[in-house]
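Ticket #4471: structure output looks truncated?

Reporter: J.K.
Steps to reproduce: submitted the chain below (51 residues) through the standard prediction queue, then opened the result file.
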Amino acid sequence: WCVAVQANRTKVFDGGEYGLPCVLVLKHLEPGERHDKSALNDVLRTHGVAT
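Returned output as attached by the reporter:
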């Protein structure tokens, strides 16, 4: 499992520059590891994601 958020990345094509949707993985969880809400909020805050 991973903690991930929606993001955009810029891609340049012949017709111009476009923002393509992608997934930004913030943290990989170890097999069997579970997150609690407070730990998840800490991960998101560390990466500047509003909670």
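Triage note (M.O.): checked the attachment and the full token line is present. The longest helix spans residues 37-46.
Status: closed, working as intended.
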